[in-house]
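hey m, so remember when u said the tokens were messed up on ur end? i reran from scratch. heres the input so u can diff it against urs
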Amino acid sequence: MAFQPSPTDVSVIITTPSTATGSEPRFLTERRVTPTWTVLQLKSKLETMTGIPTSSQHLLLKAPGRADQWVDGDDGIIGNWGLMKGCEIEVHDTRPQAARPNFNDLSSVEKYVLPSATYESLPNSVLAWKKNQKLGRFDPKALSPKESMQKQAEKDSEDVRVRGIAVSRRAIILPSSPPHVRRGTIRYVGPVPTIPFSGVDVTSQETSNSGPQPIWVGIELDEPTGKNDGSIGGRHYFTCPNNTGVFVKPEKVEVGDFPPLDLFDDMDDEMEEI
């Protein structure tokens, strides 16, 4: 029997049609195709790439210098259709649009959530490492969330006293260095329950009655470089124009003789540089 050389694979571009006229194909890749494959064999391999079932595929062969032609007959040999290097096989989906799965819609995908009991039983998790190292809430010396909040409240009160923070006083926000100095007038000093504190429901009645709460300093800035109008979480603590209000911790406030910004300050600086 004469020796029959094995057919040489042909490099072919695989695409799917675009969704809009003139736009790029939705899928594009380059694969090697053996000319002796049947059309059905080729379709079965294309299914793994495009997600289109073999029974719903209609192949359009595009070859350089030749008219486009539809490939019919699953039992036919794909090489007989004039397969050559540089060809493109466009895979069309014959299913109605409503019958095609939408892989871009993640809302219909059921997401796996690891049960808390299962996670806590894992020996190689971050939680297990924290337990072994006695970190965070596993530290026997760690303060409870309420204790941490009370300690923060004590520190804030001391900062307010030492720094001379009071309503109507002028202040700058630290860190500040020219030309990025944010200055303004203190409009509020006290608790802000609508700003959460880690592990504690600051808005609850029980927390309000349990002792002092962390202190915040509300400042009306001279320039609109703030974040609010004196309100946060839907509650007003002071009133000022939009984007001129800001809440900061007492440790970030420096009280002093900081006059309001003059609109002509920048002009004077420019004249000195001439």
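this time it looks ok to me. Residues 267-274 have pLDDT under 50 and may be disordered. if urs says something different then somethings off w ur setup not the seq
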